[in-house]
Amino acid sequence: MKLPKPKINGEVSLETAIKRRRTIRSFTPEPLSLKQCSQLFWAAQGITEDRGFKRAAPSGGALYPMDIYAVVGENCVKGLESGAYHYDPKGHAVSLVSKGDLRNKVAGAALSQTWMATAPLNILITAEYDRITGKYGKRGIRYAIIEAGHIGQNILLQSEAMGLGAGIVGAFNDDKVRRVVNIPPNHEPLLILPVGYKIEGL
Ligand SMILES: Cc1cc2nc3c(=O)[nH]c(=O)nc-3n(C[C@H](O)[C@H](O)[C@H](O)COP(=O)(O)O)c2cc1C
Questions:
Q1: What residue spans define the domains of the chain?
Q2: Is the shortest distance between the CB of 114 and ligand 1 below 6 Å?
Q3: Does residue 42 have a pLDDT over 90?
Q4: Taking burial as the number of CB atoms within 10 A of a residue's CB, which of 20, 21, 53, 189 is the most buried?
Q5: Is 22 in the pocket of ligand 1 (CB under 6 A)?
Q6: Is there an atom of ligand 1 within 6 Å of 23 CB?
Q7: What is the pLDDT of residue 200?
Q8: What pLDDT does 202 receive?
Q9: Is the minimum distance from the CB of 169 to ligand 1 under 6 angstroms?
Q10: What is the rounded average pLDDT for all residues in the chain?
């Protein structure tokens, strides 16, 4: 499914987004719009270069070993059925890889961090190391892990700039996350970012 075109201007300054960003662990059940999801995927790995190659986050050797998946709950994103989706940066589109509301299973795979299942959207960042180790050898693994951090920060700041909140989770069982989300065995899950409207005051 093709996503709406992302915006390249917003109302919150970068400095304010940096100042306000916190790891958010409580979300209201309010659904997100497809536009908000589109914006988050674009900030994560969208193509930002006019000639259509380079992406929102830097990548060692511009080899782009990362993939973005998203777990969408039932009635959580207007216009998207519940399930797990894969983001295609070139087409700025998502495709369904698993059906159903998988949020409780994802939280279960993340050492039962049940708060994650309250977020309408859980964004998963994975790395396929072969795409970068061919050029850089073992050091490519380090580069991919660093790249996950860049992508994660883009998602955190984009969430804040849109009046949303996001958490960041590194504590999970890789194989369980792979099984739940239905991702290829050579895609290593590195970070999960639950995103939604914050419960103010928490
Ligand atoms: C790589 C990484 C992994 C993290 N994993 C978790 C996690 O599994 N669960 C969690 O609740 N917070 C996790 N955090 C969030 C940290 O606890 C949080 O960033 C830290 O307490 C600082 O708070 P702040 O992000 O609100 O500034 C993680 C942060 C990073 C950078």
A1: 14-196
A2: no
A3: yes
A4: 189
A5: yes
A6: yes
A7: 77
A8: 60
A9: yes
A10: 97
CATH label, 14-196, candidates 1.10.287.70, 3.30.565.10, 3.40.109.10, 3.30.460.80? 3.40.109.10
Q: For residue 22, which atom of ligand 1 is closest to its CA?
A: 26
Collect all residues with Cβ–Cβ distance below 8 Å to 50 and sequence separation of at least 6: none
Average pLDDT for 93-114: 98
Pocket test for ligand 1, best of 18, 21, 22, 23 (most atoms within 8 A of CB): 23
Segment 128-141 mean pLDDT = 98
CA 168 to ligand 1 center in whole angstroms = 5
Q: Ligand 1 centre from 23 Cα, in Å? A: 6
User: Which atom of ligand 1 is closest in space to residue 171's alpha carbon?
Assistant: 8
Summarize the confidence of residues 42-62 as an average pLDDT. 97
Asked whether the predicted pLDDT for residue 201 surpasses 90, the reply is no
User: Is the model's pTM score more than 0.85?
Assistant: yes
